[in-house]
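Notes from hallway chat w/ T.B., transcribed later so I don't forget. T.B. wanted the structure written out for a chain they're using in a teaching module, and asked if we could keep both sequence and structure tokens in one place. Agreed to drop them here.
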Amino acid sequence: MKKLALLWAILMLSAPWVLAAIAKEHVTGTLVNVEQSTDDTLINGTTSRSSFENYTVRVGNIVYTAYCAEKLITSHCDTDFVIGAPVQVRIDGKHIYIVRANGKEQKAKIFRKKLASQ
């Protein structure tokens, strides 16, 4: 009985990760543009530079524009994409995830969503 209870507890604790892995459905989109930009901010007499990547991706008849802000240690924004090439993407709320060449996802926050012009 104890073994059955332990097995049940392990199964219930691992269920969210299994469901999260199943829920990640990617669709094919087209990478329209990748732009690099920087922003200088003056804080207490010290200039701080932030680096951003803006990704524009067309999925069906919707064009998403999203940004990725590079942080010193925790994140890196990939620029090694081919413009005009098909990419695997998934939309999750206010974020878009673009699959990189190494299979990992590049997360970016969506700030513009519009209908594509024909």
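Follow-up for T.B.: The first helix runs from residue 2 to 23. Might be a good example for the class.
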